[in-house]
C-alpha cells in the first residue's frame, strides 16, 4: 500500500490513455499541492505502515492461544497526513465526466508509488471520502501520475482504499481526472480506523500473517521464523512475536514488545 516501498506496474498504460483521452494539460495548475518531502515520507525502517499512519489508542493483543484465522492484534490508528478538497475534482477522460469528488471532502495520503515512462507527476496517492459531505462514492483515490491529471484508483473489491499495499495501474482503465486541488490540514476521517493482523498458520519456516484495515483485507505476509521457532513483525504498536502454541501445530501465542 500503498506505501513508499510499493510498486506500480505501468505497462502500456500511457499509450492506452493517450489514445483514449483528449490529451493532457502541459502543466499542473499553480495551486496544485506539492508532493510530500523526503523527510515526510520517511517512516521507521522495517515497521509496517509507519510512513502513513501512527497509533491512535491502545492496541488490543490476543490472550491465550490464537487459533487459525484468529486475531493476533488490533491497532487503532490515524493518518499522518490528511487534507480537504478545496475544489471539485472533475473528470478528464471521455469515460469520466463531471464531479468525481466534491469540494469539502476530507482525505488522507495513501502512499507514493513508482511510475512508468509516462508518469512524471508527484506519484502519490490521495484518497477522499465524498460520503462525509453527503455524496457518493464512499471512497475515491487519485494517483497523481502526471502533472495535470490523476488516475482514479480501483474501487472497493479490488483494493483497500484505506491502506494500499501496492498500486497496479495497468488495469485497462481510462478513468482520469484533472489534478485534485486540496489543502493539507488535520481533519477527522469518518471511519473505524484499525489495523488488524490475523494468524493464518505455520508453513515450514514461515508464519502466515494477513493484514486487514478498517475490516478489509490488505495483504498476506510470510514471516520467517527465528531459531527458537517464533516469528516477529514490527508494527506501529510494537514488535509482535508469534510463537507456536505447545501441543497445537495449527495455533499460536503472541507477545508485544516495544520497538527498539
Please outline what is shown here.
The protein has helices at residues 13-20, 38-41; strands spanning 53-55, 60-61, 71-79, 82-85, 89-90, 99-101, 106-112, 124-128, 140-143, 149-152, 176-178, 182-184, 194-203, 206-213, 216-224, 231-235, 238-245, 248-257. It is mainly beta and 260 residues long.
Describe the structure.
This protein has 260 residues and is mostly beta strands. It has two domains: 13-26 and 81-184, no CATH class; 48-78 and 192-257, no CATH class. The chain has two helices and 18 strands. The protein has helices at residues 13-20, 38-41, and strands at residues 53-55, 60-61, 71-79, 82-85, 89-90, 99-101, 106-112, 124-128, 140-143, 149-152, 176-178, 182-184, 194-203, 206-213, 216-224, 231-235, 238-245, 248-257. It has a seven-stranded antiparallel sheet with strand order 11-10-9-8-7-4-12, with no helix packed on it. Strands 1, 2, 3, 13, 14 and 15 form a six-stranded antiparallel sheet that branches. The two termini are 24 Å apart. Mean pLDDT is 86; it is low at 1-21.
Number of domains: 2
Helix content: under 10%
- Measure the end-to-end span: 24 Å
User: What is the H-and-E element order?
Assistant: HHEEEEEEEEEEEEEEEEEE
Structural class: mainly beta
Average pLDDT confidence is: 86
| Rg (C-alpha, Å) | 20 Å
Amino acid at each position: 500500500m500503498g506505501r513508499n516501498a510499493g510498486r506500480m506496474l505501468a505497462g502500456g498504460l500511457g499509450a492506452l490513455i493517450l489514445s483514449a483521452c483528449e490529451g493532457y494539460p502541459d502543466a499542473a495548475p499553480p495551486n496544485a499541492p506539492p508532493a510530500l518531502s523526503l523527510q515526510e515520507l520517511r517512516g521507521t525502517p522495517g515497521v509496517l505502515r509507519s510512513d502513513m499512519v501512527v497509533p491512535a489508542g491502545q492496541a488490543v493483543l490476543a490472550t491465550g492461544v490464537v487459533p487459525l484465522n484468529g486475531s493476533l492484534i488490533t491497532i487503532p490508528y490515524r493518518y499522518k497526513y490528511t487534507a480537504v478538497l478545496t475544489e471539485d475534482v472533475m473528470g478528464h477522460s471521455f469515460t469520466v465526466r463531471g464531479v468525481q469528488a466534491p469540494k469539502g471532502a476530507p482525505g488522507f495520503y495513501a502512499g507514493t508509488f513508482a511510475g512508468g515512462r509516462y508518469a512524471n507527476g508527484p506519484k502519490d496517492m490521495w484518497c477522499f471520502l465524498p460520503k462525509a459531505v453527503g455524496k457518493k462514492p464512499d471512497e475515491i483515490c487519485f494517483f497523481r501520475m502526471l502533472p495535470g491529471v490523476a488516475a482514479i484508483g480501483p474501487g472497493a473489491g479490488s483494493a483497500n482504499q484505506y491502506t494500499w499495499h501496492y498500486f497496479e495501474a495497468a488495469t485497462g482503465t481510462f478513468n482520469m481526472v484533472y489534478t485534485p486541488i486540496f489543502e493539507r490540514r488535520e481533519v477527522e476521517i469518518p471511519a473505524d480506523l484499525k489495523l488488524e493482523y490475523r494468524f493464518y498458520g505455520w508453513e515450514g519456516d514461515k508464519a502466515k500473517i494477513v493484514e486487514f484495515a478498517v475490516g478489509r483485507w490488505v495483504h498476506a505476509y510470510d514471516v520467517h521464523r527465528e531459531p527458537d521457532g517464533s516469528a516477529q513483525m514490527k508494527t506501529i504498536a510494537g514488535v509482535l512475536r508469534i510463537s507456536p502454541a505447545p501441543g497445537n501445530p495449527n495455533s499460536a501465542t503472541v507477545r508485544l514488545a516495544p520497538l527498539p
